[in-house]
Amino acid sequence: MCLGIPGQIVAITDAGRMMALADVSGVKREVNVACVAEGPLEALVGHWALIHVGFAMSLIDEDEAARTLEALRDLGEAQETLAQMAEGAAALEGRA
């Protein structure tokens, strides 16, 4: 099963590699935005996307993002995935 979690694009980190920083429920993660880029990458900042294994797979609106996060929390899947992401981020930063 594939799990796409809503994240908000907060910054472009490397335009040449089409990388951006996404905030996924408070966890910031670098993601590839090639699948959703249709113009200047800076135009993506502030938009919501479904994030799966480091890729922004599709753009969604804020209401859909909120509904999806709520449904995922209800299922308990988002918390487990977010915990794994936080552990991965901590390990990369040497805090593990």
Could you characterize what this model shows?
By secondary structure, this protein is an alpha+beta fold. The protein has one domain: SH3 type barrels (Roll), CATH 2.30.30. 32% of the residues lie in helices and 34% in strands. It contains two helices and five strands, in the order βββββαα. It has helices spanning 62-75, 77-93; strands at 5-14, 19-24, 27-32, 48-52, 55-60. Strands 3-2-1-4-5 form a five-stranded antiparallel sheet. The termini are far apart.
How are the SSEs ordered, and which strands pair?
Elements: E1 5-14, E2 19-24, E3 27-32, E4 48-52, E5 55-60, H1 62-75, H2 77-93
Antiparallel strand pairs: 1-2, 1-4, 2-3, 4-5
Largest sheet: 5 strands, antiparallel
Number of domains: 1
Listing every helix as H and every strand as E from the N terminus to the C terminus, the arrangement reads EEEEEHH
Spatial extent as radius of gyration: 13 Å
CA distance, first residue to last residue: 28 Å
Provide a concise account of the structure shown:
This protein has 96 residues and is of the alpha+beta class.
State the main characteristics.
single chain; 96 residues; alpha+beta; SH3 type barrels; five-stranded antiparallel beta sheet; 2 helices; globular
